[in-house]
Design brief:
Radius of gyration: 36 Å
Order of helices and strands: HH
Oligomer: single chain
Helix content: over 70%
Protein name: Late embryogenesis abundant protein 1
Organism: Tripterygium wilfordii (Thunder God vine)
């Protein structure tokens, strides 16, 4: 094999190796991007779940406050039932 053929073969091998390394690096970057997107999506879902739970808690607390005011004023269901029962006696 002549020096020219050896140089050509060595250059060809180097080029193929470099292309393979670049492909491998791009694949790693794509995997990293997908992982980052998945993590972002999971974080968004968790935040949405927390926001929804917080909203339900606020709604429940507000309903409890409304019921307490109604009971204090004597217009709540439990007081109406008690008042009706005591009037019948």
């Amino acid at each position: 094999m002549s020096n020219m053929q050896q140089s050509f073969s060595a250059g060809q091998t180097q080029g193929q190796t470099q292309a393979s390394v670049e492909d491998w690096m791009q694949s790693g970057q794509n995997t990293g991007n997908r992982t980052s997107s998945a993590a972002q999506s999971a974080g968004d879902s968790a935040k949405q779940g927390t926001d929804q739970a917080t909203g339900e808690q606020v709604k429940s607390m507000a309903q409890g406050a409304v019921d307490a005011v109604k009971n204090t004023l004597g217009t709540g269901d439990s007081n109406n039932n008690n008042n009706n029962n005591s009037r019948k006696s």
